[in-house]
Amino acid sequence: MEIRLKIWRQKNAHTKGKFETHHLKEVSPEMSFLEMLDYLNTQLIEQGKEPVTFEHDCREGICGSCGLYINGRPHGPMQHTTTCELHMREFKDGDTIVVEPWRASAFPIIKDLVVDRSSFERIIHAGGFVNINAGCAPESNSTPVNKIISDRAFDAAVCIGCGACVAACKNSSAMLFAAAKVSQYALLPQGKVEAAERVQKMVKKMDEEGFGFCSNTYGCEFDCPKGISVDFIAQMNREFFSAKVCKPKAE
Amino acid sequence: MKKPILSLSSLSQKYVMALAGIFLMLFLVSHLATNILMLRGDDGEAFRGAVRFLTENPFIKIMEYVLFAGFLIHIMLGVILQIQNTRARPVKYHTRLKTETSTFSRYMFHTGVIIFIFLVIHLVNFFFVRLGWVPIPEVAEGDRYEFYEMARELFQNPWYSAIYLISFVFLGFHLKHAFQSAFQSLGLNHNKYTPAIKTIGTIYALVISIGFASIPVYFLFFH
Ligand code: HEM
Ligand code: FES
C-alpha cells in the first residue's frame, strides 16, 4: 500500500517544530506502525537525511514507551492498542496519516516524536511504592485477599505509564495515571498501610508537575491502551478526601 | 513552569467546586418550585404569596448571602481551572478526533460564561429592582416585590424571552454534565448507583431547563 505521512519534526525543546510530509510506497499491511517508521527511517538514512526519532522498547504493548498521537488519537485509531501493536492494515491505501508527539507542558519534547515523561516517574517517586517488607511469594499467599478486590487491584496495575491519558485529556490531566497507581496499592493489604500518606504526596507531585485538572470528560478511559476505568479516579478522589479529612496531617 | 494559581490541591479545588455546584443545583430546584407558581393562571396570587413568605423569612435572608458566596466560589474556581488547564497544554494538536466522550464536559467553561452573562441580565431585571439599584418598572406600580407583573412585561417582549430561552438551553447543557460530574469529583462512584445518577442527572437537566423555559413561553404565547 501507499501512504502519505505528515509527521512532526522538532530538533529539540528549544526550537520550533514543523510538519514534514513523506510519501511511502510499498508499505506492507502486515507491518506494525513502528516497523513502518523503521522503513521510513531506512529510506531517510539512504538519502543521507536525519531519521525521525521516536521512542520504543518492547514492541509488545507492555513497556509504554511508544506513545504517538496518530490521526487525532493517542496510539491511533484502534481501542486498547498501543502504537507498537497497531498494524498498517488498519489504514487504507492512499491514506494520509498525521503523527504528532504527546502535547502537554508536563511532557516537554526532547526530539521529533519523543517527549520527556519523567514527570510520571517523579509522581511514582513521591509515593508509588510500599515501604513495608511484603515478603516473598509464599508469604503473600498467606495474606488472604478477596478475589474481586485483587482483580480490581490488577485492573489498575496494568497501567504501563505510556501517557495516553494525558495526551487524550483536553486538560492534559494525569488523573487516570495517578489514580491507577494510587488505587493499585490502596486496594491491597500491603499498600493500605501507607495509603493516606501516599495519595497526598502523589497528588501534590502531580499538581507540581503542571498537569491539568480533571473535567470528568473520560477521554482518558476511552483512549487508554489498557482500558483502565475512570472508576479509579473516583477511588483516588475518595482516598484523598478521607486522607485529608480523617487522617492526621502528613508532614 | 508557572506556579499554580492557588496553593490548594487540584482535587480539593474540584471538591469545593462540586460542593458549590451541588448547592447551586439545589437552589435551582427551589427557585423553579417558586417560579412555576406563576403558571397557575391565578394572576400571580400564589406566586406573590410565595415571594412574600420567602422575602420575610430570616433563613432565606441568610441563604441569599450563602447563594452569592456559592456563585462567587464556583465561578472563581471555574475561571482558575480554565486557566490552569490551558496552561497544561500550551501547544495544541494539529488533528484531534472527538471520541465518544461527554460532549458537554468539553464546554463547561463556555456554557458557564453564558450562564454568568445571563445571571447579570437576570439580576438587573429582578433582583436589583428589589435592592433599589434599578428603577421600578411602571407595571409594578411602585411595589418592588411585584415580580409577577415585572416578569409578565419582560417576557411579553420577544427579545427578552429569547435571551432567557437560549440561556436555559445552555444551562441545561451545563447541568447535564455537572450533575454526574459532581458525584465523580466527590469520589461517589459505584457500579450499582452511577448509572442511576447519570439518568437522574439527565432528567434533572431537562426538568430545570424546560421548567424555567415554560415561564417566558407562557407569558409570550398563552397569557
Ligand atoms: C446555576 C448555575 C450553575 C450550576 C447549578 C452549576 C453547577 C455545576 C456543577 C455541579 C459542576 C460540576 C462540578 C464538578 O465537575 O465536580 C459544574 C462544573 C463547572 N461549572 Fe458550573 N454551575 C453553574 C454556573 C456556572 C457558572 C456561572 C460558571 C462560570 C464560569 C460555571 C463554570 C463551571 C465550570 C468551568 C465547570 C467545569 C468543571 C470542570 O471542568 O471540571 N458554572 N457546575
Ligand atoms: S514499545 Fe513497549 S508498549 Fe509499545
Characteristics of this structure?
heterodimer; A: about 250 residues; Ubiquitin-like (UB roll); five-stranded mixed β-sheet; two-stranded antiparallel sheet; B: about 220 residues; 3 helical TM bundles of succinate and fumarate reductases; binds protoporphyrin IX containing FE; binds FE2/S2 (inorganic) cluster
Can you walk me through this structure?
The complex is a heterodimer of chains A (251) and B (223). Chain A is an alpha+beta fold and 251 residues long. Chain A has 2 domains: 3-110, Ubiquitin-like (UB roll), CATH 3.10.20; 117-245, Fumarate Reductase Iron-sulfur Protein, Chain B, domain 2. Helix content of chain A is 38%, strand content 11%. Chain A contains 10 helices and 7 strands. Chain A has helices at 33-46, 118-127, 137-141, 147-157, 164-168, 175-186, 189-192, 195-208, 219-223, 231-246; strands at 3-9, 18-24, 69-70, 73-74, 96-100, 109-111, 114-115. In chain A, strands 2-1-5-3-4 form a 5-stranded mixed β-sheet. In chain A, a hairpin with an 8-residue loop joins strand 1 and strand 2. The termini of chain A are far apart. The model of chain A has no long low-confidence stretch (mean pLDDT 94). Chain B has 223 residues and is mainly α. Chain B is built from 8 helices and no strands. Chain B has helices at 10-35, 45-56, 58-88, 103-106, 108-131, 147-155, 158-185, 194-221. At the A-B interface, helix 8, helix 9 and helix 10 of A face helix 1, helix 3 and helix 7 of B. Protoporphyrin IX containing FE sits between chains B (14, 17-18, 21-22, 24-25, 28, 74-75, 78, 81-82, 108-109, 112-113, 115-116, 174, 178, 181-182, 185) and A (213, 215-216).
